[in-house]
Amino acid sequence: MANKKGTGLFMVWVDVPDDKLVEFNGYYNEEHLAELLAVPGVLNAARYEAVSSGPKHLACYELESPAVIETDAFKNRQPTERSLRAGPRGVGTNLISNVYEMIYPTELTDEIANSDMAPALQIGRMSIAPENEAEWNQWYSGVYVPNYEKVPGCIRGRRWKIVRGEPQYAVVYEFENENVSATEKWLEQRDINADNPRMRELMTHATGSPGIWKKTFQL
């Protein structure tokens, strides 16, 4: 069975005016996702809508590795009349297009590789000063994410470093539903470790981070 996840992630966020939504959704659901899934190394994809924060519309693509975006098959896709008219660059605002490489876990496990697109995602996008980076990364991957992964309804957490776009880091928690991080069990983990408040203060979240998105479409 082909892998459904790899070590790369391509995420595109955008806001779309209400009067353009029918065209936009039609383009994505009928043309664009299938086009990208036909590219070798694009393993899986789904669309999500914001439950909290934004931009509202998120397309998430699992990549065999970040190198997929440098292949001819990915780069040489030709725009169609529909993509120019109804795609995110044609009708959207607040466009964010980021490519990432997985840094936690440090290796792709069979369990991750065979897992489907999650019903909901909580995503943080953040930066950290160079002088704090080593300690912060050790804490984030060694303490913070593993503790949240214990919470019922949290399928897993993965951390990412930017390959294209900004800011330099992201964390993606995969949830069984969009309410997991509002539960008592999740909130208990927030400050369960004495280092958590100090380490959170060291990082700077991007606008709209963190946010929660619920899956709306998958081929």
Radius of gyration: 17 Å
Task: Determine the N-to-C terminus distance.
Answer: 17 Å
Named at the architecture level, the CATH assignment is 2-Layer Sandwich
Secondary-structure class? alpha+beta
Number of domains: 1
What is the H/E order? EHEEHHHEHEHEEHHEE
Q: What is the strand arrangement across the widest sheet?
A: 1-3-2-9-5-7-6-4
- Oligomeric state of the chains in view: single chain
Characterize the main sheet. 8 strands, antiparallel, barrel
Average pLDDT, all residues = 97
- Indicate the percent of residues in helices: 25-40%
CATH topology: Alpha-Beta Plaits
Number of helices: 8
Instruction: Give unreliable regions as ranges.
Output: none
Shape: globular
Number of strands: 9
Strand content: 25-35%
Q: Please identify the top-level CATH class.
A: Alpha Beta
Give an overview in words.
The chain is an alpha+beta fold and 219 residues long. It has one domain: Alpha-Beta Plaits (2-Layer Sandwich). 30% of the residues lie in helices and 34% in strands. The protein is built from 8 helices and 9 strands. Strands 1-3-2-9-5-7-6-4 form an 8-stranded antiparallel beta barrel. The chain is globular. It starts with 7 loop residues before the first strand and ends with a strand.
